[in-house]
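G., the chain you wanted modeled:
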Amino acid sequence: MNRVAVTGMGIISPIGKDVGSFWQGLTHAQCGIGPLTRFDTTGYKVTIAAEVKGFNPADHGLDPAEARRMDLYTQYAMAAAHQAMGQSGLAGQVAPERLGVNISSGIGGIETFFRESEKLLSRGPGRVSPLCIPMMIGNMAAGNVAIRYNAQGACVPLVTACATSTHSVGEAYRQIRHGYLDAVITGGSEASVNPIAIAGFTSCMALSEVNEPLASSLPFDLNRKGFVLGEGAAVLVLENLAHAKARGTAILAEVVGYGSTCDAYHITAPEPTGDGATRAIRLALEEAGEAGLDSLYINAHGTGTPLNDKTETQSIKNALGEGRARRAAISSIKGATGHMLGAAGGAELIATILALKEGVLPPTIPLITPDPACDLDYVPRAARADQRVLGISISLGFGGHNGVLAVRRGE
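Predicted structure as tokens:
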């Protein structure tokens, strides 16, 4: 079995449009949630979101004409991939047929869908853009990244709602571990802050209707009432460790475990005992091995919905045992970034890698009133200096999709 390294990372997020500013925002408890600016919110119960501010495709290697032919979710993915590939130095260092792409989106080009549907209804079918379908479908971020970097290996976008980018990275890990590829550009992207997404998530009672940024996204807090919609992209370069060492690149982290399960219970609600998430955590940790289990950092899914946080807490206890669960340090970054949906797992894995690398744990903001049902160490309100050996990132998606990744510090 091959060992698998992370050699590049890139991110577009509501608190920073590169890894440095993202980490600065996390460790300084910055909140990226604010009033919606994309459309008139008159009549909407929810009037806030975690938007990416000031995004300019040209700042991230995209020609303006090229960008116009891409939905915003694809632009975000291209920007994050540009950063990750730049850091890795991998371009031209791997055979094209040994380079793959696993980048996807929970929803895809919903902005294109919304805009072109408006045209259809108001101006007729002849006004719908010939680029409507290529811009809208959920594999186009992966396809465009593959074209940009001549990645001729497997290009496999996965869609598992909020667990999308965690599963994308996990399957990339397996592709390299089992020798099918030498490197994979992987992660997720989402750009769904628009009228239909806000209305739809509100109608299914998933979003917080508290329209105050610092009181809206409250992971593990007694007063939590739902998540806040976020957006952005997170892309990592995974590489065969021996291949990375041979070309002398820096090893940011090593992926050492992956667990994937399904609740097979409900389309939106978690299974009440947390069994599916428990099994995913155990699978990832069993593959990672015993070393570091008593010095564990967990980046939780932590959406701030009443059911998720309670069930996730129980899953962590079930998977680790009460003692180890209480020694683990846990945080959710969704109070800062909102819920980035298909990009969330990738962003949270980057946060996990940086926490191990820098010896600083990002906080759960703004955790003020602990919930008795969520009684573990959630690193409340402020970052904490703490050297942890092993990290896991948990993602739990609509449809019962559970994904967990385990990583260790780079060599």
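DSSP finds 15 helices and 13 strands in the chain.

Shout if anything looks off.
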